[in-house]
């Protein structure tokens, strides 16, 4: 399998097939990246497309100093920031986090989404880059322009905070206990 960096250099040299391969590899991950951060699957699709348009426009300026994956997510982060600024101007903030990109999500997925929404935005972004986008610590550090050790410490704190939010949520849900306190609660939990 040809590396992303080789494909990018081939695309820079005029290979349409190389670009199509990069698109095939990264379209879905980028769509998921935008979908988890913004309201609306249509807007997520638009921004995934805009990421590749930015690659096409900057084709001649690309230098293989970083992984192509990091390069693409760097573009995506800038597009998300611009979209959030635009949304902040257009709509008064509600303080909510977009719904998860899961159809008929189980309670656990909703709890995770709500717990993520309670994190500090910088911590939430680091958790999402690591857990959802599967980026390495060094890739996250490069994207966010912070030291790797800062990534490690913020990720550690964010995971602790996330765990705390999830544990407090689980503790308040009678159905999450191993045995509901009463038969009525047991029946109610099974009726969900």
Helix fraction bin: over 70%
Taking the sheet with the most strands, its summary is: none
For the secondary structure, the number of strands is: 0
Distance between the first and last residues' Cα: 47 Å
Let me know the average pLDDT.
83
Q: How large is the share of residues in beta strands?
A: under 5%
Residue stretches low in confidence (pLDDT < 50, at least 5 long) are 99-104, 177-182
Secondary structure: elements and pairs:
Layout: H1 4-12, H2 16-37, H3 41-57, H4 68-90, H5 107-118, H6 121-131, H7 137-144, H8 148-172, H9 183-191
Helix pairs in contact: 1-2, 2-3, 2-4, 3-4, 4-7, 5-8, 6-8, 7-8
Describe the structure.
By secondary structure, the chain is mainly α. It folds into two domains: 1-100, Orthogonal Bundle (Rna Polymerase Sigma Factor, Chain: A); 102-192, Winged helix-like DNA-binding domain superfamily/Winged helix DNA-binding domain (Arc Repressor Mutant, subunit A), CATH 1.10.10. It contains nine helices and no strands. The protein has helices at 4-12, 16-37, 41-57, 68-90, 107-118, 121-131, 137-144, 148-172, 183-191. The longest helix has 25 residues, at 148-172. It is globular.
Question: What are its keywords?
Answer:
192 residues, Rna Polymerase Sigma Factor, Chain: A, Arc Repressor Mutant, subunit A, 2 domains, 71% helix
Short characterization:
With 192 residues, the chain is mainly alpha-helical.
């Amino acid at each position: 399998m040809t590396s992303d960096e080789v494909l990018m250099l081939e695309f820079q040299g005029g290979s349409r097939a190389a670009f199509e391969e990069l698109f095939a590899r990264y379209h879905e991950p980028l769509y998921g990246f935008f979908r988890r951060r913004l309201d609306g699957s249509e807007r997520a699709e638009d921004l995934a497309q805009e990421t590749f348009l930015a690659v096409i426009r900057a084709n001649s300026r690309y230098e293989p100093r970083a992984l192509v994956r990091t390069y693409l997510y760097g573009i995506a982060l800038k597009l998300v920031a611009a979209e959030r600024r635009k949304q902040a101007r257009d709509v008064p903030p509600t303080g909510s986090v977009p719904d998860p990109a899961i159809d008929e999500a189980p309670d656990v997925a909703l709890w995770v989404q709500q717990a993520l929404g309670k994190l500090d935005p910088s911590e939430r972004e680091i958790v999402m880059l690591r857990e959802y986008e599967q980026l390495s610590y060094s890739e996250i550090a490069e994207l966010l322009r912070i030291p790797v050790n800062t990534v490690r410490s913020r990720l550690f704190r964010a995971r602790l905070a996330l765990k705390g939010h999830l544990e407090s949520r689980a503790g308040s849900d009678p159905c999450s206990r191993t045995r509901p306190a009463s038969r009525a609660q047991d029946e109610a939990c099974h009726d969900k």
